[in-house]
Specification:
This protein is α/β, with parallel strands linked by helices. Among the domains are: 136-258, Beta Complex (Malate synthase G - maily-beta sub-domain), CATH 2.170.170; 464-573, no CATH class; 580-721, Malate synthase, domain III (Malate Synthase G, Chain: A, Domain 4, Up-down Bundle), CATH 1.20.1220.12. It contains 25 helices and 26 strands. The radius of gyration is 26 Å and the shape is globular.
């Protein structure tokens, strides 16, 4: 790799040119000035970053030692809590306060709805996610298992009628008419400032006439009407010439629903970015989103076309005034955490740059372009989600880092907003004090239960063998953790100001189950929750029409706060005496997930994809699920539930199954990727298989149980060997 020496920084020449030639032009910055300020900040912050990582290790050693010294004693939770306080793992909770963040966009503060997460390194996915602000209910229902039965070839009229009935029932619930079902209407007109629904000649109105806010077309023959409910919009399309509309009694051709209000453009768990080449790809796509000129060339049904960002949507209000609604999701950028470094830039001492520092500077630098066009944030804010922070001191460092970025780029203090992923145990137990450190920037907290489970396992590695993964979801600590997050957020003044989020639905093909289960998220007080696809966003949005989250939050505020001691209920098995069959099933499930994900990460550079599980159900996998599975086997190995030989037999067996699952996967033969390389053809020579094994057999020694250090090492090995 060729490098440019700039004030002691040795910068990848391609990254240097990208910043100078593509990012800085169009801003008010000069190249030399940027690099000078960047260098100064990096060399000031890097040692602080390194000390925080060392602090994690020191604390973990103390916790390991405590468990080792007390393993023959009955676990005393009070004694344990006092110990955690004595090593500052739990800090003192200070007086109550309310967050003071200003300049927050409505999608964050006052509208509740789905949130997409999408890898930044795939331009097509990023565009689809940004454009997922609006979705067709007809398409989402017709194409998924929410409507039972097969589709067949061409348009299935019977299935289509089921979809229409489903949607009409939904409209009856969220936008009811006065003594008439939406299924009975024969015409829609506008009279004066009201929308009139006719059943033959009988006129009916919305029960809440204020829900009607606008239209397109003429009043006597509108092409669409716009309805607002719980701050979300529904557009009813009317077209008697449409292949659906011409057979509909009211000529309704589709129902569009505001879907993904916000989207996290992910630089972290869902991407495999290990060097300058990878990072530039990520940064370039984010830059395109911020400039508004990102495109992706595609072929569909043998036709070539170019996908680009959707424009805003226009309507006429019932008073005849123009209404403009956002045509795309509000975009947040998830940077990496504090742990990893990247060879794209070397410091004066030859060390790699902390990747999180690089991300903060460059993602904000790219966002300066949006300060001018304001097509993303209308308030002049940059939204950065920060994952994998451990406790208040690490959150304070993020606040310091963002302040340095603002100073270097010459933007207003607190322009950079922060979202805290509550996915590490030390952050959970100190959540209030974490929020306090960024009370002027905070816009988001989210329970990342997958990573949180991984950290739970690693933190208490020495405490004993962990319960089965499936039992984790029913454990005391996990339920309490989910409630604790909401309780703390509400007590810190989040309602009507910032997002309280919930985690991902990981099964994109099982939408019927999602519709049954994920309504629990808005009921829990979460004003956003993660979904894996635009279709899932459209369907999940229906829940936010049915549930007024802000009213739910008012009720929740009066309940008793979740208890810290319940969060610290360690999920170890009491006298495990499991049948070999059950142990094998758990090991195989874990191993299959590890191998299915790692082979794509290492061999193909794919950080997130739909990976078939042991039952051939496609699961959206990223590094968080990998962390759980690898830590779980590593824990069982350490505590003698299984042997190394036993695990290796399972790994080889499941590698063969994964090979079979992947051998005809078209994903391996498109977008310029090489075909699938079977691990089982040569276990000894497969870098992917070696990586999967290392994650398990070296899992106990990985920092906080994270998978990144080993994955990055193996991916770089693969890239240099190709």
């Amino acid at each position: 790799m060729s490098r440019i020496d700039k004030n002691g920084l040795k910068i990848s020449s391609t990254l240097f040119e990208f910043i100078n030639n593509e990012v800085i032009p169009g801003t008010n910055l000069k190249s030399d000035d940027f690099w000078n300020k960047f260098e100064k900040a990096v060399h000031e912050l890097a040692p602080l970053n390194r000390n925080l990582i060392q602090r994690r290790e020191d604390i973990q050693k103390k916790i390991d030692t405590w468990h080792q010294q007390n393993k023959e004693k009955k676990f005393d939770k009070k004694e344990y809590i006092e110990f955690l306080k004595s090593i500052s793992y739990i800090v003192e909770e200070k007086e109550d306060f309310n967050i003071e963040t200003t300049g927050i966009d409505n999608e964050i503060s006052s509208i509740a709805g789905p949130q997409l997460v999408v890898p930044v390194d795939n331009a097509r996915y990023a565009l689809n996610a940004a454009n997922a602000r609006w979705g067709s209910l007809y398409d989402a229902l017709y194409g998924t298992d929410v409507i039972p039965g097969g589709k067949g070839k061409g348009y299935n009229e019977e299935r289509g009628n089921k979809v229409i009935t489903y949607v009409r029932k939904f409209l009856d619930e969220v936008a009811p008419l006065d003594n008439l079902s939406w299924n009975k209407i024969t015409s829609i007109q506008i009279k004066n400032e009201d929308v009139v629904f006719l059943n033959e000649k009988e006129e009916r109105y919305l029960v809440n006439k204020n829900q009607f806010i606008g239209l397109n077309g003429k009043k006597d023959k509108p092409s669409s009407i716009l309805i607002k409910n719980n701050n979300l919009h529904i557009e009813i399309l009317i077209d008697s010439n449409h292949f659906i509309g011409k057979f509909d009694k009211a000529s309704i051709s589709d129902v569009l629903i505001e879907s993904a209000l916000s989207t996290i453009i992910d630089n972290e768990d869902s991407v495999a970015a290990v060097d300058a080449e990878d990072k530039i790809k990520c940064y370039r796509n984010w830059l395109g989103l911020m400039k508004g000129d990102l495109t992706a060339h595609m072929i569909k049904n043998e036709k070539k076309f170019t996908r680009k960002l959707n424009p805003d949507r226009s309507y006429i209000s019932k008073k005849g005034e123009k209404i403009t609604l956002h045509g795309r999701a509000l975009l947040l950028n998830r940077n990496v955490g504090h742990l990893m470094t990247n060879p794209a830039i070397l410091l004066k001492n030859g060390a790699e740059i902390p990747e999180g520092i690089m991300d903060a500077f460059i993602s904000t630098l790219c966002a300066l372009h949006d300060f001018k066009n304001k097509k993303n944030s209308r308030t002049g804010s940059v939204y950065i989600v920060k994952p994998k922070m451990h406790g208040p001191e690490e959150v304070a460092f993020t606040n310091l880092l963002f302040g340095k970025v603002e100073q270097a780029l010459g933007i207003k203090k607190y322009s950079i907003k922060v979202g805290i992923m509550d996915e590490e145990r030390r952050t959970t137990v100190n959540l209030k004090e974490c929020i306090r450190q960024v009370k002027n920037r905070i816009v988001f907290i989210n329970t990342g239960f997958l990573d949180r489970t991984g950290d739970e396992m690693h933190t208490s590695f020495e405490a004993g063998p962990m319960i089965f993964k499936g039992d984790m979801k029913k454990s005391t600590w996990l339920e309490t953790y989910e409630n604790w997050n909401v309780d703390i957020g509400l007590r810190c003044g989040f309602s009507g100001k910032a997002q309280i989020g919930k985690g991902m639905w990981a099964m994109p093909d099982l939408m019927a189950n999602m519709m049954d289960q994920k309504i629990g998220h808005p009921k829990s007080g979460a004003n956003c929750a993660w979904v894996p696809s635009p279709t899932a966003a459209t369907l999940h949005s229906m829940h936010y029409h049915k549930i007024n989250v802000f009213e739910e939050q008012k009720k929740i505020k009066s309940r008793s706060k979740a208890k810290l001691e319940d969060i610290l209920e360690i999920p170890t098995a009491d006298r495990p005496n499991w049948a070999l069959e059950d142990i094998n099933r758990e090991l195989e499930n874990n191993a299959q997930g590890i191998l299915g994900y790692v082979v794509r990460w290492v061999d193909q550079g794919v950080g997130c994809s739909k990976v078939p599980d042991i039952n051939d159900v496609g699961l959206m996998e990223d590094r968080a699920t990998l962390r759980i599975s690898s830590q779980h086997i590593a824990n069982w190995l350490y505590h003698g539930i299984c042997s190394k030989e036993h695990v290796m037999r399972v790994m080889k067996k499941m590698a063969t199954i994964v090979d079979k699952q992947n051998e005809n996967d078209p994903a391996y033969n498109r977008s310029g990727r090489s075909g699938y390389i079977k691990m089982s053809d040569s276990f000894e020579n497969s870098i992917a298989f070696s990586a999967a094994c290392d994650l398990v057999f070296e899992g106990r020694f990985q920092p906080s149980g994270y998978t990144e250090p080993l994955l990055h090492k193996k991916r770089l090995e693969k890239k240099t060997s190709s």
